[in-house]
Write a structure and sequence with these properties.
CATH topology: TIM Barrel
Strand content: 25-35%
Order of helices and strands: EEEHEHHEHEHHEEEHEHEHEHH
Structural class: alpha/beta
Shape: globular
Helix content: 25-40%
CATH architecture: Alpha-Beta Barrel
Distance between the termini: 7 Å
Length: 241
């Protein structure tokens, strides 16, 4: 299981939101490139980057910063937030981004998802953000009546390279991951699943390693606030593999 540090971008800065609320923001760094280098030096193999401005507006707002991060580290990058057309995907891939994450568009534009997964096999992940098992969209501001597990199965059939499953009620809260719902998603599909939301400690990482076939876990606030040592977390997961 990979431990994947998150870099959430808002107005060009590294921030974290509480439960995805745009007005509940904490700024951790005004130097995203240095932050990326820091996580790379801790042994991270992959960085998870989200353009929060893009997630709320529907179009990428921090592309210049993302490109600078790409130029500053050698490890793989996956990027999400405001990716709702093929032009944006092409721009990111041309800039050296390894994989992209489609969120809201997975619900609102299924043809775009199908086309993107076909055009870029193994490079398009789907972000499924959920509250009590129901999918949330548009920067988590709208909760739908769509069941997360059913959506995951449907998107697997469309050719998605993997699922990033986030429990939005726990994201940024340090309250621990939703083990039960994460396990349900992993068991529902045969493609890689990455868990996110609520990670606070080494104990949380250990609990997630017990979920058979869980591919990875994203951690944000815990490594920025110091409740989780990234090096230690990576070391533990390597030992468990």
């Amino acid at each position: 299981m990979l431990v994947i540090p998150a870099i959430d971008l808002k107005d060009g800065q590294c921030v974290r939101l509480f439960q995805g609320k745009r007005d509940a923001v904490t700024t951790y760094s005004n130097d995203p490139e240095a932050t990326a280098k820091r996580w790379e030096s801790c042994g991270a193999q992959l960085l998870h980057i989200v353009d929060l401005d893009g997630a709320f507006s529907g179009s990428q707002k921090n592309l210049d910063v993302i490109i600078k991060i790409r130029q500053s580290v050698k490890i793989a990058l996956q990027v999400g937030g405001g990716i709702r057309n093929v032009t944006t995907i092409s721009t990111l891939f041309s800039a050296g981004i390894n994989r992209v994450i489609i969120g809201t568009a997975a619900i609102e534009d299924p043809e775009f998802v199908t086309y993107s997964c076909s055009k870029y096999p193994d490079r398009v992940l789907i972000g499924i953000d959920a509250e009590k098992g129901m999918v949330a969209v548009r920067g988590w501001e709208e909760v739908t009546s769509i069941d997360a597990k059913q959506l995951a199965k449907r998107l697997e059939g469309k050719g998605a390279a993997g699922i990033i499953y986030t429990d939005i009620t726990r994201d940024g809260t340090l309250s621990g991951p939703n083990i039960e719902e994460t396990k349900k998603i992993v068991e529902a599909v045969n493609i890689p699943v990455i868990a996110a939301g609520g990670i606070s400690s080494i104990d949380d990482i250990k609990k997630l390693t017990k979920i058979k076939n869980l591919w990875g876990v994203i951690t944000g606030k815990a490594i920025y606030s110091g409740t989780l040592d990234l090096k230690e977390a990576i070391k533990i997961t390597i030992q468990d593999t």
